Amino acid sequence: MDGLISFFASHYAIRAEMVLTRHGLASRLVPGPKDLSPNCGVALRFEYAQRESVLGILAAKKVQIDSVHFYRPQTDRWSGREG
Amino acid sequence: MVYFDNAATSWPKPEAVGVATSDYFRESGGNPGRSGHRMSVAAARIVEHAREAVAGLFHASDPSRIVFTHNATHALNLALMGLLHPGDHVVTSSIEHNSVMRPLRYLETLGIEVTVVPCTPEGILDPKDVRNAMRPRTRLLVTTHASNVAGTLIPVAALAVLARDHDIRYLVDASQTVGAIPIDVEELGIDLLAFTGHKGLLGPTGTGGLYIREGVTLTPLIRGGTGSDSANEIQPEFLPDACESGTLNAAGIAGLGAAAHFLSQIGVDAVRAHERKLVEQFQSGASEISGIRLYGPTDAALQCGLVSFNVAGAISSEIGLILDESFGIMARTGLHCAPAAHRTLGTFPTGTVRFSFGWFNTSAEVETSLEALRQISVWASNSIGRSARGNL
Questions:
Q1: How confident is the model at residue B37 (pLDDT cuts 50, 70, 90)?
Q2: Alpha-carbon gap: B240 to the closest alpha carbon of chain A (Å)
Q3: Which of B266, B290, B320 finishes a domain?
Q4: B112 and B162 together in one domain
Q5: What are phi and psi of B192, to 5 degrees?
Q6: Using the beta-carbon criterion (under 8 Å), do A10 and B62 form an inter-chain contact?
Q7: C-alpha torsion sign, points A5, A10, A12, A16
Q8: B374 inside domain
């Protein structure tokens, strides 16, 4: 996943995951990257290509968001067996 | 054993409530919304599913407008303290519980004016009397949805219109009704609705909340950590975090979510119909027992699922003791934390016996209680004049 949404509160991050799942859109909750936003402990990764439908659904369900990013975190390069 | 004290706290709870609470401890276990790891996220999911399920029961379309509290009293204090300022005027009714009356009497000492509109001895509140109590500085109307003593339903729909016409806020204390009487906060235009999780909602004690309509802003009752906006030393202003400082009762809320799900499967309409039938059965049977005096509207359509009564020749606490010890019937006697309501009913200070029914009560249990009251009324009529107190 190459998109990430940060939120002001984890309440909205969880709500976002709930409503996107109901609409068949893939997403994944992750610890909020501190380099992007200090606001909330939880952020949501999603497919950036689905940006329009994702943001449309969140707005319709009154899920407030902080900001939207194109984002590939460093952990994507973590093989799990390094060192 | 017959449990008729559901207005104090409902019992039994749906099996799923205990399971969900236990699962939280054994499996989810994290602090909801504080960390990004799977246990914290799992706990946060439980909380948000519960919030959504509860919101659905009174038709609040945006769950973010529900803040969880420890109980309805906490929610009512949050609403009253968060909305009223010195110089404001607030209107309420004469059948309120102390969870409304005590905060209001405290606010009076801070310079907030309180008008208590009298209800009839049946606990009926006339919206016209409420309208006549309005003043230019009136900021809030607060009423219960149903009396916890007489069961009398308050005309919340008419009062919501009245509040809107006067451009004031309307706070409903729905402690006795959420989960048991259908209510649609958005259709009615109710500004604030306080609820408890452990009565009609069938959830654990230590849960409750406040619905806050979009556009209504409250000053928080307490401030602190929310897991959000952590770089900022100023309390966030967005809901639910603004009014949810400190770690939530996640285990309790897990149970509450399961209870709300259970109720949404049954339907609040079905709960209402069931409790109404039990009230009708009780009223019909009790009216044929000499010496029993029923309080309230004595019309099941005009009250929630509880009845209040006395037996001539005995005081309420004695009747309660006999019901418990000789018949295994659990009732609540006395003043029910609502002295104003008992003054309205004319039952202050001795109080009444209250039977409050729930989804799990049966017609057979009501019949058992009627038979017990037949025996108690005979005993009480024989003991009139022989009381050691000499005043009965």
A1: confident
A2: 8
A3: B266
A4: yes
A5: -140, 135
A6: no
A7: positive
A8: yes
Q: Is residue B392 part of a domain?
A: no
| Contact yes or no for B79/B194 (Cβ under 8 A) | yes
Instruction: Suggest the residue from A4, A7, A8, A10 to mutate for an interface test with chain B (most B CBs closer than 10 A).
Output: A10
Return the CA Rg of chain B.
Answer: 22
CATH for A3-73 is 3.30.70
Place of tokens 């849960």: B207
Kindly list the residues of chain B whose beta carbon comes within 8 Å of any beta carbon in chain A: 32-37, 40-41, 44-45, 47-49, 51-52, 62-64, 226-231, 236, 238, 240-241
Q: With 0.90 as the threshold, say if the pTM is over it.
A: yes
Dump pLDDT digits (tens) for B110-155.
999 999 999 999 999 999 999 999 999 999 999 999 999 999 999 9
**What are the residue ranges spanned by the domains of chain A?**
3-73
ipTM: 0.86
Give the angle B194-B196-B198 at the CA atoms, nearest 5°: 170
Q: Which residue of B has its CA nearest to A9?
A: B228
Mean pLDDT across B182-197: 98
C-alpha to C-alpha distance for B153 and B236, rounded to whole angstroms:
37
- Residue B389 belongs to some domain of the structure: no
More confident residue, B255 or A32: B255
Contact B48 A38 (CB under 8 A): no
**Mapping DSSP to helix (H, G, I), strand (E, B) and coil, where does residue B93 land?**
strand
Please tell me the distance in Å from A83's CA to the nearest CA on chain B: 23
Q: What is the pLDDT of residues A10-68, one digit of tens each?
A: 999 999 999 999 999 999 999 888 787 777 678 999 999 999 999 999 999 999 999 99
Give the model confidence (pLDDT) of B92-104 as tens digits: 999 999 999 999 9
Domain that holds residue B272: 2-9+268-383
For residue A70 the two structure tokens come to 């194109």
Which chain A residues touch B245 with a CB distance below 8 Å?
Answer: none
Nearest residue to B229 via CA among A33, A44, A9:
A9
Claim to verify: residue B352 and residue B221 sit in the same structural domain: no
Pull the structure tokens for residue B26. Answer: 């054994």
**pLDDT average, residue stretch B338-346:** 93
Is B48 within 8 Å of A11 when comparing Cβ atoms? yes
